[in-house]
Amino acid sequence: MNNSIINYAHRGASGHCPENTMVAFRRGLELGATGIETDVQMSKDGTLVLIHDESVHRTTGQHGEISQLHIDEIRRLDAGSWYSHEFAGERIPTLDELLDWAADKELTLNLELKNNIEPYTGMEEKVIGAVRARGLEERTIISSFNHYSLLTCKRIAPEVRTGILYVENLVDPWNYARNIGAEALHPYHLTMESFIVQHANAAGMISNPFTINDPERMQQLIDMGCAGIITDYPDRLHEILHSKAERISNPL
């Protein structure tokens, strides 16, 4: 088995389960994920919760902004039925819930801070505090489209890796990332080209593109030398990595 490439389950195994729920995270692990990618927002009373949108509407059918709801209100919402009645009753989890579950598992955690629209003052300190409380610093990478937030994370915790999220074709992104103390590029996968990965690798910078569900594109990114791939279907990537490892170990 090829363990050199991290298989990040995007919002958990969100191709199979309601995104950013504990069932999606558990299913990701079952399907071969070696990493979990998730989105962190903060409730009105300061609880870190895992949901992509600033509003609860899309994944619960209810109304309200995460920043204006208390955790007890958020935890009452059904975050599974929108996907399938099979998942009725799934809740929006807290970051603590995910970290407690992941603590004894061999998983890398990619925590995306969703503070590029809602500022969530103090989020960085809370996230890092939760990670440090469980000794997960070496297994965590913090990403964000808010690169000022990544600077804050580095000031608080130089030992925790950060990755710049972006969707544009940046010029020399490895240099930009290095200038803000980041260790990783987290680009939209269509901006990822072989020369970028090569320059990033030479600069000691890893590349974890998102979100790749097509096996052919997965293989292209593997061949480029990416360190991780973020996908809704970790089973597809697992199959590619497993098949590649089998061919290497059994060339005849």
Automatic annotation (TrEMBL):
Domain GP-PDE per the UniProt entry, residue ranges: 5-241
SUPFAM superfamilies named among the record's database cross-references: PLC-like phosphodiesterases
Supply the InterPro entries for this chain.
Answer: GP_PDE_dom, PLC-like_Pdiesterase_TIM-brl
Query: Which CDD domains does its entry note?
Result: GDPD_TtGDE_like
What is the protein's name according to its record?
Answer: Glycerophosphodiester phosphodiesterase
